[in-house]
Specification:
Transferase(Phosphotransferase), domain 1; five-stranded antiparallel beta sheet; 10 helices; Phosphorylase Kinase, domain 1; alpha+beta; three-stranded antiparallel beta sheet
């Protein structure tokens, strides 16, 4: 049984800001070593991760660890600890997850130069299979098990996902950033507001919300052979409708993924009931995710390597393509609402 981890003392959030673009092992290794309470060899191999900084480290006894440095300003310390609590609640139920170590400060969260971090054991795994009914059944069961832990209590410091908070918040951040091309702004706002209106018509009731993974796509499920499936990366966890974690696993719309959906839910309902009517919200959730990603890019567009990753981002042609994508998605939302049958 895992014990609840002690929360860190309240501190000024501005202290968390750092030169994240230039954050190097030379800066953070002494702090990680101190808070781990054991020696490190100095080995630090960066993983591909744009949002956060993630490094593989090595202890002097030869153990491999993974240190995750959270992007300053994205989450409060309390919100990060909500993530950790969710992972520990899953581990308490023997869900296969990777829980962070408790550090010498009595918390699972440390700081290096104002940057929050957590340290995890390194666990390898191969990509999970999604092609057979049996494999989808197992993945559905894993998700149902996770949601059974998530249903215990809400995450106090995380967003509650509604069209207003998730899509409306994204729209506000997007226009506040000043990154929307003037030639596209009015039409983009109109389409996004129409998406929000459509979402409100079909969105599940907040009384059904639980803590969810939030980003439960295929890359976040690993197969560890005899140990079974492993769920990773709870960074985007929030309070929301369980269907948010289901639809990301589907190869297409629910109406075109009935076999896959049936297999997933067959496993899921071993641990949790599922409200089939919530499937009507899937295409609205997809559009909300598109809006959220655009707002995230707008906020991060000043980062050192952003334009190397997204070279055309922010141009008029870029916004016209995005606008076309959102319009098509709005049409699909309306089509699915009229034609989808459970």
């Amino acid at each position: 049984m895992f014990m609840r981890r002690k929360r860190i003392k309240k501190r000024d959030f501005r202290q968390m800001q750092g030169e994240f673009d230039h954050f190097t092992p030379e800066q953070f290794l002494p702090d990680v070593e101190k808070l781990l309470g054991g020696g490190l060899t100095g080995y630090a191999c960066a993983f591909t991760s744009y949002v956060n900084r993630v490094y593989e480290l090595e202890t002097t006894s030869g153990d491999r660890l993974v240190a995750k440095f959270y992007r300053p300003g994205r989450w409060t310390p309390e919100a990060i600890l909500d993530e950790h609590d969710f992972v520990f609640d899953c581990a308490d139920r023997e869900v296969n997850v990777v829980a962070p170590y408790e550090l010498t400060n009595g918390s699972t969260l440390g700081f290096s130069g104002g940057v929050p971090f957590a340290v995890y054991p390194k666990k390898r795994g191969r990509e999970a299979e999604f092609e057979t009914r049996e494999s989808l059944h197992k993945i559905g069961a894993l998700l149902g098990f996770i949601h059974s832990a998530g249903a215990q209590y809400p995450a106090e410091h995380r967003m509650t996902m509604t069209p207003e908070t998730f899509a409306g918040g994204a729209l506000k951040r997007l226009f506040d950033s000043g990154m929307v091309h003037p030639a596209c702004g009015r039409e983009l706002e109109s389409v996004c507001l129409d998406i929000m209106d459509e979402a409100e018509r079909v969105f599940p009731d907040e009384n059904t919300f639980i803590r969810i993974h939030g980003d439960f796509h295929r890359a976040n499920v690993l197969d560890r052979g005899g140990e079974g499936l492993l769920a990773i990366d709870f960074d985007d966890m929030l309070n929301g409708p369980p269907v948010q974690d289901i639809w990301l696993l589907l190869p297409d719309t629910p109406s075109k993924s009935r076999g896959e959906l049936a297999a997933l839910l067959e496993g899921y309902e071993l641990f949790m009931d599922f409200d089939d009517s919530s499937l009507r919200a899937v295409e609205s959730l997809r559009a909300m995710r598109m809006m959220h990603f655009l707002s995230w890019c707008a906020i991060q567009s000043g980062d050192l390597n952003f334009h190397a990753t997204f070279p055309d981002w922010g141009s008029e042609s870029f916004w016209r393509r995005e606008l076309c994508d959102l319009k098509r998605q709005l049409e699909l939302i309306r089509y699915e609402r009229r034609n989808f049958r459970l």
